[in-house]
Amino acid sequence: TSERSLVLVKPDGFARGLTGEVLRRIEAKGYRLVALSVLTASPEMLHRHYAEHEGKPFFEALVEFMSSGPLTAAVIEGERCIEGFRSLAGATDPTLAPPGSIRGDLGRDWGEGVQKNIVHGSDSPESAAREIGIWFPQL
Ligand code: CMP
């Protein structure tokens, strides 16, 4: 059945001008754009978005990075698009993400761990519903 996923082009990807390339790949794959926004996220939003990572060693640095500048948030739609976008994105660590994926083609290690990995995609229908509620409360 058709589902929705929350996609973020993180501040590193946004600053590098990769929003269009990410959206191009999403559309080329056949998913539809349902909502699209450019914004600078507040630490409060990011604490909600990353609630499951609260307390982990990388959490504060992650919130600081993610609130450091503008990003693009999108809701996409299509059959199995949650899994499908995670496949498009590739592994969390861009050094190890396979060529052909967004992170594998466009990402690398910049000496700051695996934080700057260009995109985020929801990991389950439950996460997608929760995350869409944070970034697009009007939906
Ligand atoms: P994302 O899929 O958005 O979910 C959690 C994010 O934390 C991850 O992408 C990375 O940007 C970031 N992160 C930073 N360090 C780590 C780490 N050691 N393990 C996993 N994620 C990390």
Automatic annotation (TrEMBL):
<keyword id="KW-0808">Transferase</keyword>
<dbReference type="InterPro" id="IPR001564">
    <property type="entry name" value="Nucleoside_diP_kinase"/>
</dbReference>
<feature type="binding site">
    <location>
        <position position="92"/>
    </location>
    <ligand>
        <name>ATP</name>
    </ligand>
</feature>
<dbReference type="GO" id="GO:0046872">
    <property type="term" value="F:metal ion binding"/>
</dbReference>
<feature type="binding site">
    <location>
        <position position="58"/>
    </location>
    <ligand>
        <name>ATP</name>
    </ligand>
</feature>
<feature type="active site" description="Pros-phosphohistidine intermediate">
    <location>
        <position position="120"/>
    </location>
</feature>
<dbReference type="InterPro" id="IPR036850">
    <property type="entry name" value="NDK-like_dom_sf"/>
</dbReference>
<comment type="subunit">
    <text>Homotetramer.</text>
</comment>
<keyword id="KW-0547">Nucleotide-binding</keyword>
<dbReference type="GO" id="GO:0005524">
    <property type="term" value="F:ATP binding"/>
</dbReference>
<keyword id="KW-0963">Cytoplasm</keyword>
<feature type="binding site">
    <location>
        <position position="117"/>
    </location>
    <ligand>
        <name>ATP</name>
    </ligand>
</feature>
<dbReference type="GO" id="GO:0004550">
    <property type="term" value="F:nucleoside diphosphate kinase activity"/>
</dbReference>
<dbReference type="InterPro" id="IPR034907">
    <property type="entry name" value="NDK-like_dom"/>
</dbReference>
<keyword id="KW-0546">Nucleotide metabolism</keyword>
<feature type="domain" description="Nucleoside diphosphate kinase-like">
    <location>
        <begin position="2"/>
        <end position="139"/>
    </location>
</feature>
<dbReference type="GO" id="GO:0006183">
    <property type="term" value="P:GTP biosynthetic process"/>
</dbReference>
<keyword id="KW-0067">ATP-binding</keyword>
<feature type="binding site">
    <location>
        <position position="10"/>
    </location>
    <ligand>
        <name>ATP</name>
    </ligand>
</feature>
<dbReference type="GO" id="GO:0006228">
    <property type="term" value="P:UTP biosynthetic process"/>
</dbReference>
<comment type="similarity">
    <text>Belongs to the NDK family.</text>
</comment>
<dbReference type="GO" id="GO:0005737">
    <property type="term" value="C:cytoplasm"/>
</dbReference>
<protein>
    <recommendedName>
        <fullName>Nucleoside diphosphate kinase</fullName>
        <ecNumber>2.7.4.6</ecNumber>
    </recommendedName>
</protein>
<feature type="binding site">
    <location>
        <position position="103"/>
    </location>
    <ligand>
        <name>ATP</name>
    </ligand>
</feature>
<comment type="function">
    <text>Major role in the synthesis of nucleoside triphosphates other than ATP. The ATP gamma phosphate is transferred to the NDP beta phosphate via a ping-pong mechanism, using a phosphorylated active-site intermediate.</text>
</comment>
<keyword id="KW-0479">Metal-binding</keyword>
<keyword id="KW-0460">Magnesium</keyword>
<keyword id="KW-0418">Kinase</keyword>
<dbReference type="GO" id="GO:0006241">
    <property type="term" value="P:CTP biosynthetic process"/>
</dbReference>
<dbReference type="InterPro" id="IPR023005">
    <property type="entry name" value="Nucleoside_diP_kinase_AS"/>
</dbReference>
<dbReference type="Pfam" id="PF00334">
    <property type="entry name" value="NDK"/>
</dbReference>
<feature type="binding site">
    <location>
        <position position="86"/>
    </location>
    <ligand>
        <name>ATP</name>
    </ligand>
</feature>
<keyword id="KW-0597">Phosphoprotein</keyword>
